[in-house]
Design brief:
The chain is mostly helical and 468 residues long. Helix content is 83%, strand content 0%.
């Protein structure tokens, strides 16, 4: 069969997906164990504690374009193994942290290492598995494993903090990293270390990193600092200036960090937008569901983690079925179908009640998870299809960027919750006001996802059909 991977192919895929699992687990589990970290290391405030997560997110998002290009220049296998080794080392440092500064520094190191791993893992998959059913199957398994990391992170974080210590969340990452490093060293062929002769676009790299850092920083700190504050407005203004200058530099440079011709391909730019929508709306709604379960239903942290089982399990199934669905519906058909299922599931959360409603919670969150992963696999497959080998590193980074820029969607939905809750709080109880705010934001997320379906149908139908 065309999609058969073979024994060695499966071992290579497990190795690459192990890195994806490791970074996905890290992001989800830390969110769950933040309260215990704060108590153990005596963080001064909730705002300073949030830097445990933000310090990892910022370098990952801002350095993705740089390391995507570097992988084409120095070799993907070499960069991937370096990233995994560094991630494992910084995870060990985080697990041994004795004060907030040490932990935040280690988290920044983990984030930088994740920026190395994310694009090279995708690029290595495009090298190891031929375009078509085989590669689509690999991306589907990767999406399923990413979802598994989310499920085990939310559940495992609660279990570990209940029975052990938050430090074990970091030490488990060290063990996984060591296994991935062993697999990469033994299994990945040295032919994946082919290098491009092009030079590195230093001005473009600096501008892209500064612009993305300022953008994610402004969005991440905006809710607490205030959107009109000098820090937030200054950061977002810097992002606009730096990213605008980046586009000008790329237009004039003979060896740009991100070739504008590649960025302007319909399959790249429109798939990237779909990726941004699915990550932003799913990630944001997942945060809303956590608030719903804890602030409205009064679930414990462990029960809240269990409440995400349907979303994670459905996402896992979606990843495993993605290759077949893409084969039957085509890339764009599967992308539109996945985003439609995500949108309908998310929009239906408008009906979640103040008490009970477990069946509806599981059904709607499951639909969102299934549709999200199907969309993710479809847009990454579309974005990385029909490209030259020397473009795959950059394309791999671009395909991962929506995952980290999804914080924009989370911030937007959170702002809707706050505004609507404040309006309702004058006429109803705090719980019902919160529920009303959540309902409005969930309905908005559903509508935005359905708009994404329309965009896919309008702008991707013809170009993608030519590359299917």
């Amino acid at each position: 069969m065309a999609d058969r991977l073979g024994a060695k192919g499966w071992l290579i895929l497990v190795t690459l997906c192990g890195a994806t699992f490791m970074t996905g687990l890290d992001f989800s589990v830390v969110t769950v164990v933040l309260p215990e970290i704060g108590r153990d290391l005596d963080f001064a405030s909730t705002g300073s504690l949030q830097w445990v997560a933000t310090a990892c997110l910022l370098p990952t998002a801002s350095l993705l374009p740089l390391f995507s290009r570097v992988s084409d220049l120095i070799g993907r296998r070499r960069l991937f193994t370096t990233g995994v080794a560094l991630f494992s080392g910084f995870s060990l440092l985080a697990g041994l942290a004795t004060d907030p500064a040490m932990l935040i520094a280690a988290r920044a190191g983990q984030g930088t290492s994740a920026a190395v791993i994310a694009p090279t893992a995708i690029a290595l998959m495009t090298t190891a598995f031929s375009e078509g059913p085989q590669r689509t199957k690999a991306f589907g398994v990767n999406g399923a494993v990413l979802s598994l990391g989310f499920v085990l992170g939310t559940l495992g974080g609660g279990v570990i903090t209940s029975g052990l210590n938050w430090r074990w969340t970091m030490l488990i990452l060290v063990i996984i990293g060591a296994l991935v490093l062993l697999g990469a060293t033994v299994l990945l062929p040295r032919t994946t270390d082919t290098r491009s002769a092009a030079r590195l676009d230093i001005p473009g790299a600096v501008l892209a990193s500064v612009g993305l850092f300022a953008l994610v920083y402004g969005i991440s700190t905006g809710p607490e600092a205030g959107w009109a504050s000098a820090y937030t407005s200054g950061s977002l203004s810097l992002a606009v200036v730096a990213l605008g200058a980046f586009l000008l530099v790329e237009w004039r440079d003979v060896a740009p960090l991100i070739p504008l011709g590649l960025l302007n391909k319909p399959t790249v730019k429109w798939s990237g937008l779909i990726g941004f929508i699915t990550f932003g709306m799913c990630g944001g709604t997942t945060v809303l569901l956590s608030l719903y379960m804890q602030d409205v239903l009064r679930y414990s942290a462990l029960a809240t983690g269990a409440g995400f089982l349907a979303e994670g399990t459905a996402a896992l199934i979606g990843g495993m079925l993605a290759a077949r669905l893409i084969g039957a519906l085509g890339k764009v058909g599967a992308m539109a179908t996945g985003l439609a299922v995500q949108g309908l599931g998310t929009g239906a959360m408008f009906l979640l009640p103040e008490d009970g409603g477990l069946a509806l919670l599981l059904l709607t969150s499951g639909a969102m998870g299934f549709g999200h992963v199907l969309t993710v696999v479809s847009f990454i497959t579309t974005m990385t299809s029909g490209l030259r080998d020397d473009e795959q590193g950059v394309a791999g980074g671009l395909s991962q960027l929506p995952q980290f820029l999804g914080a924009i969607g989370t911030a937007g939905l959170a702002a809707i919750v706050t505004a609507r809750t404040n309006v309702l709080s004058a006429t109803t109880s705090p719980t019902l006001a919160t529920l009303g705010g959540l309902h409005t934001a969930m309905l908005t997320a559903g509508i935005v996802s359905l708009v994404g379906v329309l965009l896919a149908a309008l702008f991707l139908r013809r170009p993608t059909a030519e590359t299917s």
